[in-house]
Design brief:
By secondary structure, this protein is mostly helical. It is built from seven helices and no strands.
């Protein structure tokens, strides 16, 4: 049963990822990226990592993607602002990278093997208070990079607003 759910979610995340780079509309690409992030969060749940799944939904599919959609809609990009059409090269490289990724994935599975029972055993062997330990590390040892990422996101928002205001 777990293999079936994993297979469905894996195919869904790969298809949504391909649709992210093949859409003409930036808004549609961002929405497919949200679908990819949600399917990855469910995969984290399958691996007995509810904290990572929650962070995936809240931070990536929630906050960051809402920010991307806000900036895309705020800038109101038109087709002529993107430059000449380069979809043929983009499609070629997308297919090439997917093919290389599948080869790498098949090689890893063949040499290392993978089973959900081993992934669950690894997850259960970790520290029991996953969230507490993560929070302690985040706000002690990694406080500076955490705050730096916050400032970077703030600067990106202010920059997008300044750029959009110039066009009005």
């Amino acid at each position: 049963m777990e293999i079936l759910i994993f297979s469905i979610l894996a195919v869904l995340s790969v298809v949504c990822s391909i649709l992210v780079i093949s859409q003409k509309s930036a808004v549609a690409s961002a929405l497919f990226l949200i679908a990819t992030m949600v399917s990855l969060a469910i995969l984290f749940l399958l691996l007995n990592s509810p904290f990572l799944a929650t962070v995936q939904i809240i931070v990536y599919a929630g906050a960051v993607m809402v920010l991307f959609l806000f900036v895309i809609m705020l800038l109101n990009l038109r087709r002529d602002e993107f430059g000449p059409e380069k979809r043929k090269a983009q499609i070629f490289f997308a297919i090439l990278f997917v093919f290389l990724l599948l080869i790498a994935l098949a090689t890893v599975i063949e040499t290392e093997g993978f089973s959900f029972s081993s992934a669950k055993a690894l997850a259960q062997a970790g520290k029991p208070a996953e969230v507490e330990n993560f929070a302690k590390l985040l706000f002690t040892k990694y406080l500076f990079p955490f705050e730096l990422a916050s400032v970077l996101l703030l600067v990106a928002i202010v920059g997008a607003i300044v750029m959009a205001k110039r066009k009005l």
